[in-house]
Design goal:
The protein is mainly α and about 500 residues long. The protein has four domains: about 90 residues, Arc Repressor Mutant, subunit A (Orthogonal Bundle), CATH 1.10.10.10; about 140 residues; about 70 residues, no CATH class; about 60 residues, no CATH class. The longest helix has about 35 residues. The radius of gyration is 41 Å and the shape is flat.
Length: about 500
């Protein structure tokens, strides 16, 4: 199928995201070696080539690309209520037949689903109102048996109008005096006297036996000792359409017997089992895809195809280092320094350091600083040590305006480097020298002996000015006392 896509469809594509998504999806489907295998959007989103290759919003790009691929016919999609998320198939005959089966099963899914439960409740309520009117009772409370009867009739293909009309026709004759009001169970013969206008598969297979029993229904009969009712029939058929006959039969052997029939757990357990199998398959195929991606990186960076020794090393290391991001950053780090040596790359991958791998910003201020540093200082490269320093400073300086001012100051001083920017950020503001006790220091002007200059205070409060005046008055009084005779004694005599 991948070869067919390359030969007939590739030339029509003009969207890079659609091309990437289609190629990865077809490759994953091809690796599973089944004509009816499926892949989900979650599996595609987890693939390294799409997780890191669809831009800043990979989920949006992935959904849009999948829609275009389905519209073009490169992939087939099935989205029914019984599936946790849409499944994407190869565009072949087997997949189309499976999708048709899924859609048909979904149309007649278990009456315990919300849609059909609502239909049964609505029909029973309508019948209760008719019985109240015809039997002359104040209120008719339907039972669980009434609900099961209506569900069975709906499963056979009878519509709500057909059921209501038959019940009204059965109760149109007045009941005898002293007899209890008739219920829905008394109308069974009238409802089933005629076949439904649009008989269901269940009606043809179980009720009239005009069609042969499917394999899974035969298995149910052998395990349970009886044929299924309408709800059980639809559950088994829906499970077969979604997960296949083999998986359904295996699960039925565990949950269906003559003493216990837990048919409601069939589809949830099959879904859990399929997810486990898919996880196992992904675990098996992931190293192969990782090896291919690393070898492609080697060829693009080194300009030469990888040797057998390099391929063997990558295969051995893929299990221990499964993150393709580590490999990509290691290759990028070596390419920036023009150091194309395989042993050097192996050392970096096995012993990553902060100088190689960029850290994530801890807050918005750090993110702003990362972007500004890449744009104005390093031209797109952010050293791991610088990123670590930025994160540490950003814990205390969260205002992006302060960071912007620091970068602008460094630019005006023609010193756009991290050491200067860091000094501007961490140095205290000029003119606010303080001692270790937080008090302002007196600075000597250095002009003339014994001459001191009062510190310049840009903004002072009224309290500060009053305190300064009080200190001045005290100094004047002390000087006057020292100059007075007798050590400052009063001379007023």
């Amino acid at each position: 199928m991948l070869d067919y896509f390359l030969q007939h469809t590739l030339a029509q594509l003009d969207d890079l995201a659609e091309l990437k998504v289609t190629l990865i999806a077809l490759r994953l489907l091809e690796l599973r070696q089944s004509d009816t295998s499926a892949v989900t959007a979650s599996e595609l989103a987890a693939h390294p080539a799409l997780r890191d290759g669809l831009g800043f919003a990979p989920d949006i790009a992935l959904n849009s690309a999948l829609q275009r691929a389905v519209t073009r016919g490169s992939l087939l999609m099935c989205d029914v209520a019984s599936l946790d998320e849409p499944r994407y198939f190869q565009p072949n005959a087997a997949s189309r037949q499976l999708i048709d089966t899924l859609m048909q099963s979904a149309a007649r899914i278990s009456p315990r689903t919300e849609r059909e439960t609502d239909a049964a409740q609505r029909t029973v309520t309508r019948l209760a109102r008719a019985i109240e009117r015809l039997e002359l009772v104040e209120a008719y409370r339907y039972s669980e048996g009434d609900l099961r009867l209506v569900i069975e009739w709906l499963a056979q293909g009878y519509t709500e109008d057909e059921i209501t009309s038959s019940v009204q026709h059965a109760l149109i004759v007045p009941r005898a005096k002293g007899t209890p009001p008739r219920d829905i169970a008394a109308c069974v013969a009238q409802v089933t006297a005629r076949p439904p206008q649009a008989p269901s598969e269940y009606y043809d297979v179980i009720t009239t036996r005009t069609q042969p029993l499917p394999d899974e229904i035969i298995a149910f009969r052998e395990l349970a000792g009886r044929l299924p009712d309408g709800r059980e029939y639809q559950l088994v058929r829906a499970a077969t359409g979604i997960y296949g006959v083999t998986a359904t039969l295996q699960m039925m052997r565990r949950h269906v017997n003559t003493t216990r029939i837990d048919i409601d757990a069939l589809i949830p357990l099959l879904a859990e089992q399929q997810e486990a199998e898919l996880a196992l398959q992904r675990a098996k195929t992931a190293p192969n895809l990782l090896v291919q991606e690393v070898l492609r990186l080697y060829e693009s960076v080194f300009g030469l195809p990888p040797t057998s020794r390099v391929a063997q090393d990558v295969s051995q290391m893929a299990g221990d280092i499964p993150d393709i991001t580590v490999w990509r950053r290691a290759f990028a780090f070596c390419a920036q320094r023009n150091k194309r040596d395989w042993s050097y790359i192996v050392k970096i991958v096995q012993n990553p350091s902060p100088a190689v791998f960029e850290l994530d910003p801890i807050n918005d201020a750090a993110q702003f600083a990362f972007n500004e540093y890449k744009r104005r200082v390093s031209f797109g490269v952010l050293d791991g040590i610088v990123a670590q320093d930025i994160n540490e400073i950003a814990q205390n300086i969260t205002d992006t305006a302060v960071w912007q001012k620091a970068f602008d100051t460094a630019a005006r001083s023609n010193a756009l480097n991290w050491n200067y920017i860091k000094k501007v950020l961490t140095s205290p503001p000029k003119g606010t020298g303080e001692d270790k006790d937080g008090k302002r220091k007196q600075r000597s002007s250095g002009r003339g002996r014994g001459v001191s200059r009062r510190p310049q205070v840009e903004e002072s409060t009224e309290a500060e000015r009053e305190a300064a005046r009080e200190r001045a008055r005290q100094r004047i009084e002390e000087r006057a006392k020292r100059r007075a005779p007798n050590g400052g004694a009063s001379t007023g005599e």
